[in-house]
């Protein structure tokens, strides 16, 4: 797979998002607080069209269109055309484009682009993780007490029993802080490049986390489910750290 082409596609989608941010966009609700804008749709259509053209034998699962191609099911693109839609809708400059390739159930290639900062994170399994072409590594922080972490809350946080409030409170009290920034893909990239030491969240989809998870792994970190089991892109949850604080974080976020 040509990662340079995927990077080019991600940058193209980022330009669409910035253009929409400048010219104006429409907002709809998929749920009580789950938003979608025409920027999501335009970016999604562009990415899917480009992937079909350049990788015609690979299946594509995108957030806004679902499974648009079933060719080569052992290889699946997962696409989030705008990760951080709520931030985008409010004009808050923390959102991203995330494109990942899953091969036989494992993250194989990932690209995450922040069009506001211009940062582009990319990784191929076994080849390291990079930010704008420079290799990145996770932090060396050895304890939760010395850590800055990040988490998120599912759109149905008001009604779900595992609402993450308990883990959020426990980790906040045990650490130097827990941020809530609103783009899981970028949160994972910030763990991968050492700005943050760990991330966890439930209620996520494969397109939210697969590229970022690969970034953390290729930067030397650790990724699992929240109970420590092997990471599964479709399990709808993730815990990702620099590796050194992983066991300690899992204990704090166990149960709700």
Q: Can you describe this structure?
A:
The protein has 256 residues and is an alpha+beta fold. It has 2 domains: 3-135, Fructose-1,6-Bisphosphatase, Chain A, domain 1 (2-Layer Sandwich), CATH 3.30.540; 144-253, D-Maltodextrin-Binding Protein, domain 2. It has 7 helices and 15 strands. The strands form 3 sheets. An 8-stranded mixed β-sheet has the order 4-3-5-6-7-8-9-10, with helices on both faces. The mean pLDDT is 93.
Q: Top keywords for this entry?
A:
256 residues; alpha+beta; Fructose-1,6-Bisphosphatase, Chain A, domain 1; D-Maltodextrin-Binding Protein, domain 2; five-stranded mixed β-sheet; 7 helices; 27% strand
Describe the secondary structure blueprint for this structure:
Elements: H1 3-23, E1 27-29, E2 35-37, H2 38-54, E3 59-62, E4 66-69, E5 75-83, H3 85-89, E6 96-103, E7 106-114, E8 119-124, E9 129-131, E10 134-135, E11 149-151, H4 165-174, E12 178-180, H5 184-192, E13 198-202, H6 206-218, E14 222-224, E15 237-241, H7 246-253
Parallel strand pairs: 3-5, 11-12, 11-13
Antiparallel strand pairs: 1-2, 3-4, 5-6, 6-7, 7-8, 8-9, 9-10, 13-15, 14-15
What's the short story on this structure?
This protein folds into two domains: 3-135, 2-Layer Sandwich (Fructose-1,6-Bisphosphatase, Chain A, domain 1), CATH 3.30.540; 144-253, 3-Layer(aba) Sandwich (D-Maltodextrin-Binding Protein, domain 2), CATH 3.40.190.80.
CATH class of the largest domain equals Alpha Beta
Computed Rg:
17 Å
The structure class reads alpha+beta
Topology pattern, helix = H, strand = E: HEEHEEEHEEEEEEHEHEHEEH
Within the CATH hierarchy, at the fold level, what is the topology of the largest domain? Fructose-1,6-Bisphosphatase, Chain A, domain 1
Helix percent band: 25-40%
- Spatial strand arrangement across the major sheet: 4-3-5-6-7-8-9-10
CATH superfamily of the largest domain: Fructose-1,6-Bisphosphatase, subunit A, domain 1
Strand content: 25-35%
Oligomer: single chain
Please provide the count of β strands: 15
The shape, in one word, is: globular
Number of continuous helical runs: 7
Tally the structural domains: 2
User: Do you know the CATH architecture of the largest domain?
Assistant: 2-Layer Sandwich
Q: Any low-confidence stretches, pLDDT <50, length ≥5?
A: none
